[in-house]
């Protein structure tokens, strides 16, 4: 009787949360527990704050690119767009005298413009997403160096006249308020994805683009919208990165998109399109962040994260293929 109850509980969890999200959640608990058991230093409040700091900007990147991946597309430019937007916003504030609040809004807008550029290239002109966003990656990377004259840009530090923006993500008492921001943004993104016309059409395009077009939906508009959303979230990630680390280096950001995409895939969003969730993405992002922060505590260098992340992504994609095959049977 007890065995049946356990099976029933597992089936209810699987149905409510989803198999891949449930596996990802279990993996997160196991990985965190492993580091906590292996290192006493890992079990500290500062470590938790570091994990959250690493989760904010990657989390925003991942939330945005979730919309794109559900359409069966990809956005390789989000990392460099994040840094380029932050650098331009920093230059507007430090060199051109813009108020900080206006510069932060400019970061969001610049990210959105890059997203619109990707959307037009892909949805209107028919460029493959991989090529289009790879080109945008190089454009944004070069633009950040041009605008900053190949110099780093430093945002106001905590305690300075305009240091208030840092409290959005961490208070003076070291409380990670950014977690609240991430949760609120994730909930809003989940509502857009699951309860609005935008989300329904994005899922439909990812499931069957041609059938969606034949049903009278403006596929070009809604596919482009997914990339605009991705760009806006890249801009938001730029704000979070500036608030967390202050100094922005030109020509950087490439590689960060891989962490975000890995989090999305590990969280159960299918690269084949038509399947995905914001909850799964957030779980995947925390898995990536725990790995990134936890590995040095067991005397492994950060480059081991690349090896482990690649392995995890392969397993996640293979799991998605197996689950899809089983559903078709």
What are the SSEs and their pairings?
Layout: H1 2-17, H2 19-38, H3 45-70, H4 78-94, H5 100-124, H6 129-148, E1 153-154, H7 178-195, H8 197-207, H9 209-214, H10 219-245, E2 247-248, H11 256-266, H12 278-294, H13 303-328
Antiparallel strand pairs: 1-2
Write a structural description.
The chain has 329 residues and is mainly α. The protein has helices at 2-17, 19-38, 45-70, 78-94, 100-124, 129-148, 178-195, 197-207, 209-214, 219-245, 256-266, 278-294, 303-328, and strands at residues 153-154, 247-248. It is 73% helix and 1% strand. The chain has a two-stranded antiparallel sheet with strand order 1-2. α2 (19-38) packs parallel to α12, α3 crosses α12 and α4 (78-94) packs parallel to α6 (129-148). The longest helix is centred in the C-terminal third of the chain and has 27 residues, at 219-245. The protein starts with a helix and ends with a helix. The mean pLDDT is 88.
Précis, in short:
By secondary structure, the chain is mainly alpha-helical. The chain has helices at 2-17, 19-38, 45-70, 78-94, 100-124, 129-148, 178-195, 197-207, 209-214, 219-245, 256-266, 278-294, 303-328, and strands spanning 153-154, 247-248. A two-stranded antiparallel ribbon has the order 1-2.
Annotation, overall tally of beta strands? 2
* Amino- and carboxy-terminal Cα gap: 30 Å
- State which percent range the strand residues make up: under 5%
Strand/helix succession: HHHHHHEHHHHEHHH
Which descriptor suits the 3D outline? globular
> Helical region count?
13
Defining key terms:
13 helices; 329 residues; 1% strand; mainly alpha; globular
């Amino acid at each position: 009787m007890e065995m049946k109850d356990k099976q029933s509980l597992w089936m209810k969890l699987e149905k409510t949360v989803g198999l891949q999200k449930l596996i990802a959640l279990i993996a997160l608990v196991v990985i965190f527990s492993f580091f906590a058991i292996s290192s006493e230093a890992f079990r500290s409040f500062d470590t938790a704050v570091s994990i959250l700091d690493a989760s904010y900007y990657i989390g925003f990147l991942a939330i945005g690119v979730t919309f794109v991946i559900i359409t069966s597309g990809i956005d390789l430019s989000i990392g460099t767009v994040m840094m380029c937007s932050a650098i331009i916003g920093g230059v507007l504030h430090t060199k051109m005298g813009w108020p900080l609040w206006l510069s932060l809004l400019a970061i969001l807008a610049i990210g959105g413009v890059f997203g619109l550029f990707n959307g037009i290239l892909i949805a209107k002109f028919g460029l493959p997403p991989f090529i289009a966003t790879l080109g945008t990656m190089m454009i944004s990377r070069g633009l950040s160096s041009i605008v900053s004259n190949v110099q780093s840009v430093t945002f106001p530090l905590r305690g300075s006249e305009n240091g208030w923006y840092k409290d959005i993500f961490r208070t003076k008492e070291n409380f990670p308020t950014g977690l609240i921001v991430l949760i609120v943004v994730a909930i809003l993104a989940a509502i857009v994805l699951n309860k609005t016309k935008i989300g329904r059409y994005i899922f439909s395009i990812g499931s069957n683009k041609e059938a969606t077009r034949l049903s009278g939906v403006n596929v070009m508009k809604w596919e482009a919208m997914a990339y605009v959303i991705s760009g806006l979230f890249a801009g938001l990630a730029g704000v979070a990165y500036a608030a967390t680390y202050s100094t922005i280096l030109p020509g950087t950001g490439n590689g960060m998109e891989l962490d975000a995409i890995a989090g999305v895939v590990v969280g159960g969003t299918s690269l084949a399109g038509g399947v995905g969730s914001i909850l799964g993405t957030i779980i995947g992002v925390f898995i990536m962040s725990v790995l990134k922060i936890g590995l040095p505590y067991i005397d492994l260098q950060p480059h081991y994260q690349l090896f482990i992340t690649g392995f995890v992504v392969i397993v996640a994609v293979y799991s998605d293929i197996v689950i899809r095959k089983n559903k078709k049977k």
